[in-house]
Amino acid sequence: MKLKDKRIIQLVSNDFEDLELWYPVLRLREEGAIVDIVGEKAGEKYIGKYGVPIMSDFAFSDVDPGEYDAILVPGGWSPDLLRRFDQVLQMVQHMDEHKKPIGQICHAGWVLISAKILNGVNVTSTPGIKDDMINAGSIWHDEAVVVDGHIISSRRPPDLPDYMREFIKVLTNN
């Protein structure tokens, strides 16, 4: 198993894009990673856009990002909620400062924008937030997945296999 003993934060709030949260969690667990679901409250049920639930393991305040190897931000409408929490932005900033993998897909770029870590970074996202990404200083590409150092970005659910292949590669080499 490529990712045995790797610990990953999977951020969550309501209205996440179901596949963009669940697919990465399952793929990473298949590779032996420990993926903790982290939301505003521990033991809380969060519901995806299409009704698929997930239970959080920990609250934002319970986790020390220094104990983790990577972080994932889901897509859907949940990034607009997640970016309102200073603890979320601090986790993302910590990962950026320590060059640990940060995965973002679809609208997840909003969290990285609010964390102010995209200046000069090559990224992709859903085309719907292309202007937001560019206005934050990033270099936007319309590609299935873009890797710029430790930041791995993707557009939408059909790109998930490419996204996870590259995320796992970066995490394995980190």
TrEMBL record:
<protein>
    <submittedName>
        <fullName>Type 1 glutamine amidotransferase</fullName>
    </submittedName>
</protein>
<dbReference type="InterPro" id="IPR002818">
    <property type="entry name" value="DJ-1/PfpI"/>
</dbReference>
<feature type="domain" description="DJ-1/PfpI">
    <location>
        <begin position="6"/>
        <end position="169"/>
    </location>
</feature>
<dbReference type="Pfam" id="PF01965">
    <property type="entry name" value="DJ-1_PfpI"/>
</dbReference>
<dbReference type="InterPro" id="IPR029062">
    <property type="entry name" value="Class_I_gatase-like"/>
</dbReference>
<comment type="similarity">
    <text>Belongs to the peptidase C56 family.</text>
</comment>
<keyword id="KW-0315">Glutamine amidotransferase</keyword>
<dbReference type="InterPro" id="IPR006286">
    <property type="entry name" value="C56_PfpI-like"/>
</dbReference>
